[in-house]
Amino acid sequence: MDQVRGPTGKRRWPWVALATVALALVVIVDFVTGTEASASLLYLVPVSITAWFVSLRAGGAFALAGAAGWAATYVLSRHFVYRPGLLYWNTAVETAVYLIVAVMLATIRLDIERQRALAARLELAYQELDHESLKVGELQRQMLPAAPPPIPGYRVAVHYSPSARAGGDSYDFFDLQDGGIGLWISDASGHGSPAAVVMAMTRALVRGDGHPAAAPDRFLDSANRRLKRIILPGQFVTACYAVFGRDRGEVEYSLAGHNPPLLVHRTDGAVEKLESFAGLPLGLFADPLYRRAAVRVSPGDTLLFYTDGLTEAMDPEQGLFGIERLERVLIEHRDRPEAELCERVLDALREHRRGAPLSDDLTFIVVRATGAEDA
Q1: Could you give all domains of the chain from N- to C-terminal order, each with its CATH number?
Q2: Is the pTM of this model over 0.85?
């Protein structure tokens, strides 16, 4: 209990001096007033000063000194002669009261000091964790492509933003042996740094092959088998892998528990949710079945690949942005350039959220078919 300290070293002595002066003044007042006005509570002033600003030991010493001062004034006032026992009893009561106040104040001060120390340690730990998360996020963003590669017959725009310093979303592009381009988008389970670690592991695995499989289903099967060997139980990754380039009007894709891409037809504005044939997320089972699908696209059509952080973004009342709202934005702005279409989606998302933070990582890729030789 005597750990309680206010100012330390020489800085404590002014409080001791102040308490000493206060005690002397109280004794004088008590003696002058006698029984006409009780000054016994004033002895708590020097007790409180020392118990709070110096230590419990000092507070206890002034409690005893205050009780002694009170007894001395009682004796000097000659009000004890007819009942000496009353003096002993009252002195004991005064002593107990002063000591209780000293202990209570010192205990409160000790609790405050402990809370401050704990808060300081928590703040330091938070700063260290935040710094580490910031570094993880920086490393993660360095792993992502600086810009989409040119895809003959298509133009591409990407938006990526984690809900925390780092996140579990990822995207990538691969040059295939037959001249095609592979597009990868994935979402690791969880949030923050743990999800970022799974994301980095997955990216390293899918990048491990010098020439990734051109067949989307084979690509996901290979990624799953390799990830299953190292991922922790309960963790998983949803993913979509699409291939562009072999046939300018056709895109092949395969899904692993991921949101199916959306195809916006320029001519009539219809939005088509591509058939999913979705296999299980990566990392859960050793031999899941992944199926390949293909879709025909015409010049001006738009493909949207996205993670569920887009459709599941919430407003302050926890209402979801939703697939229907997303489709309306895509239809309304289908003729805008792909980068501007990204901005219109973000505008609608901000309007829906009304300042609410992202509840999940947000990644989406807009691919516009041009039909031209160059992207």
Answers
A1: 9-122 (no CATH), 144-369 (3.60.40.10)
A2: no
